């Protein structure tokens, strides 16, 4: 392959192999590469919602202390190569091309074995391992789980610590129909002797985590027990709270990301930093923590892209995400007219999922976009059980018509699939709408 575009086309061509749970193909490729994952200090972040935000809080605090921090995240918002980054800078196109050329022969050889071809996500993960271990050499890498945990392609690492943000109903066709089954998949990232930090608050989920932690002889730190936040207050611009932990850490901090769910994500990252300082000799001072938390932001998560009128983009694509979005809107804009534009994938059950938003919204507009798995606006409209709804299949037209009738104090929220948010965000950034 001679260009980045050609390498990207090859990687995307592997999408036809879909999702294939299991680690055997990853282990085969990493063995042939000399196990690059073993040369990295890693932190593993799983959960249903909040993974990306937790990663960004953690990254900014470590960067503030002078560490070079690799991150592996998904999906992307602006450019594909941002999924593999160091200190927020995406992998260079020439580096991606070089590593992809190194890995492609292995992929083609593996496809001829009984294991079959690796998937797109497995190949991207392998590219990340090789890049971090042989090109970028970061001090630490934070890996975001792609799907589930137990059989996710990132789950070949033996990290310094694991983080599980929460567990909710998502990807049930793959992870299971009950919260306990889904929790078991998430708990699969817990490794023998490796501590795990969780923000899950459902007792049935915690029971699964506690059992797995005991079996793996792993110390479990739970939000609300071994660490917590208090003195919580918020404005439209920031949120303030005091973090406390059993490791003796107390600190008053400020974050600029919106919603109390982000306070919980920040607390997870703070507990992780506290553990790394206490047991892994990481040198992170209070000022690095304060500065890092305030600088942290995550594109497409309650992101304000316009102020007159207010337009917010939020990738709320499952029940927990929608609930968090609704709570944040109620907290900040309870006295405003709120318009919602929503688009989702075909596998989403939106009827009950959108109830919290429909109760806040003056109107919900269902739309679609050019993506193979995207539902049509009409399909989403027919699922919704509430009355304040309409359809506009052209999302650009949906935004334009809503903005025409909005008053300056009204709020427009564009939400749903992160792939949809990525496309909409491009329009706002390029045209400065």
The pLDDT mean sits at 93
Distance between the termini: 38 Å
Tally the structural domains.
2
**What percentage of residues falls in helices of 4 or more residues?**
40-55%
Number of helices: 16
Integer-rounded radius of gyration? 21 Å
Q: Walk across the major sheet and give the strand order.
A: 4-3-2-5-1-6-7-8
CA-based shape: globular
Number of strands: 17
- Spans of at least 5 consecutive residues whose pLDDT stays below 50 are none
CATH superfamily of the largest domain: Mur-like, catalytic domain
Major beta sheet, specifics?
Answer: 8 strands, mixed
SS class: alpha/beta
Query: Which CATH architecture of the largest domain?
Result: 3-Layer(aba) Sandwich
Summary of the model, kept short:
By secondary structure, the protein is an alpha/beta fold. The protein contains 16 helices and 17 strands.
Model description:
This protein has 16 helices and 17 strands. The radius of gyration is 21 Å and the shape is globular. Helix content is 41%, strand content 19%. The two termini are 38 Å apart. The model has no long low-confidence stretch (mean pLDDT 93). The protein has an eight-stranded mixed beta sheet, sandwiched between helices. The protein has two domains: 4-295, Mur-like, catalytic domain (UDP-N-acetylmuramoyl-L-alanine:D-glutamate ligase, 3-Layer(aba) Sandwich), CATH 3.40.1190.10; 303-431, Mur ligase, C-terminal domain (Protein-Tyrosine Phosphatase, Chain A), CATH 3.90.190. The longest helix has 20 residues, at 260-279. With 433 residues, the chain is α/β, with parallel strands linked by helices.
């Amino acid at each position: 392959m001679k260009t980045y575009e050609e390498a990207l086309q090859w990687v995307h061509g592997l999408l036809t192999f879909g999702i294939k749970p299991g680690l055997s193909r990853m282990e085969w490729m990493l063995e042939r590469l000399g196990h690059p994952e073993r040369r990295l200090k890693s932190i593993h972040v799983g959960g249903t919602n909040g993974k990306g935000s937790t990663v960004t809080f953690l990254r900014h605090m470590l960067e503030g202390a002078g560490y070079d921090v690799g991150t592996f995240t998904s999906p992307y918002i602006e450019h594909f190569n941002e999924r593999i980054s160091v200190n927020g800078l995406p992998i260079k196109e020439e580096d991606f091309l070089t590593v992809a050329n190194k890995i492609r022969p292995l992929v083609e050889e593996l496809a001829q074995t009984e294991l079959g071809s690796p998937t797109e996500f497995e190949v991207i993960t392998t590219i990340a391992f090789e890049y971090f271990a042989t090109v970028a050499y970061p001090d630490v890498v934070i890996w975001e789980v792609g799907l589930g945990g137990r059989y996710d392609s990132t789950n070949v690492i033996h990290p310094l610590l694991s983080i599980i943000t929460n567990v909710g109903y998502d990807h049930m066709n793959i992870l299971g129909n009950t919260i306990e089954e889904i929790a078991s998949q998430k708990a699969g990232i817990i490794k023998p002797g490796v501590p795990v930090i969780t923000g899950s608050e459902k007792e049935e989920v915690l029971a699964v985590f506690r059992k797995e932690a005991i079996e793996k002889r792993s110390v479990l730190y739970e939000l609300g027990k071994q660490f917590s936040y208090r003195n919580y207050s918020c404005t439209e611009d920031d949120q303030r709270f005091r973090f406390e932990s059993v490791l003796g850490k107390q600190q008053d901090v400020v974050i600029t990301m919106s919603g109390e769910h982000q306070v919980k994500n920040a607390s997870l990252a703070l507990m992780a930093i506290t553990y790394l300082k206490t047991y892994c000799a990481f040198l992170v001072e209070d000022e690095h923590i304060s500065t890092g938390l305030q600088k942290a932001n995550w594109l497409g998560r309650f992101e304000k892209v316009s102020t007159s009128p207010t337009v917010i983009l939020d990738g709320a694509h499952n029940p927990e995400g929608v609930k968090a979005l609704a709570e944040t809107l109620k907290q900040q804009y309870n006295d405003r007219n709120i318009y919602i534009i929503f688009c989702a994938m075909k596998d989403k059950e939106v009827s009950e999922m959108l109830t919290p938003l429909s109760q806040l919204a003056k109107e919900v507009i269902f739309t679609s976009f050019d993506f193979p798995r995207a539902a049509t606006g009409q399909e989403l409209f027919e699922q919704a059980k509430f009355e304040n709804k309409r359809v506009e299949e052209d999302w650009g037209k949906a935004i334009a018509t809503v903005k025409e009738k909005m008053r300056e104090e009204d709020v427009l929220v564009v939400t749903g699939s992160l792939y949809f948010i990525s496309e909409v965000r491009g329009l706002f950034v390029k045209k400065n709408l």
